[in-house]
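Researcher: Re-running this chain for the archive, since the previous output was lost when a drive failed. Same request as before.
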Amino acid sequence: MNKEAQIHAAGRTDVGQRRGDNQDQFLIAELRKSMQIHSTSLPLDKESTLFGGRSGQLLVVADGMGGHAAGRRASNLAIDHLIAQLLNNVHWFLHLDEDHDEAFIESLKALLQQTHTKLLSESKGTAEHRGMGTTLTLSYIVWPRMYVVHAGDSRCYLIRNGKCKQLTTDHTLAKQLVDAGGMKPEDEAGSRWSNVLWNVLGGHGRNDLIAEVHRVELEENDTVVLCSDGLTRYIDEAALLSVVNQYGDDIEAMTDHLITLANGAGGVDNITVVVSRPRAAEAPSSQDDPPRSVPLVSLDDESDLQPDSDESMSLEELQTFANEDTLPDER
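Model: Regenerated structure tokens:
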């Protein structure tokens, strides 16, 4: 018997207490093998659709920026384009071995780059959308693997055995300064550079996007959380872990409570959170669908959680960058 991911996920987005509109978007989707029947001698209805087993679960959070209409358009367009590319160009159903796994990761990076290029093209061609951009954090779960693709300062957390681990890196100037030794970690959250992003889809940035990618081996009872910075500016890892422990499998109540906490603490930004409890469900095996195997990483090894991209700036480059008249994308 093979195992496939059983869907147990919930998401919610909220405008917050200060904003006039919501520029965040989220997506929870189940990917399946399917076949549409057009004509057959079998006792099947024409134009009927047959579905095979689940291929995996897709989770996405996007946080738009660039003004009211532009921010909404950026996050909408990013997810719309992402879905179209996923359905038509990414080989979700390949049996992944080590070689195919690396090719799959490259296709995920290319997917983010294509979406980035799409946003840049529209922002340059439409005055009201000029400079629009969005963060994007995507999780694709094909049991027991999880692939995370990321750009911006939305986040993906993995909660396991009473520990909460941020898998993604905030692509802000403040984080770069901390990593370069130019700022103390405790000063990062309150820094003016914590809202300045150097890596987003679209925006005023460079043509080449840096796609951060992680691979993680999931275990039973893991919890995966994706969220925008409207949540994380108020909810730290300890608070997130406390809420997850409090609500257990009631993930709908969990998302509601996290939104309530962020709004109660100020709610200055849009707030979005997606929670998933991936589980292995038995699926019928066949000679054409052998068990998949691929080298995976462990949550306990810090080195395994480093992104595939190693793009960074030196402290001198950051200081020069911060003093330039043209800054990266600021919320």
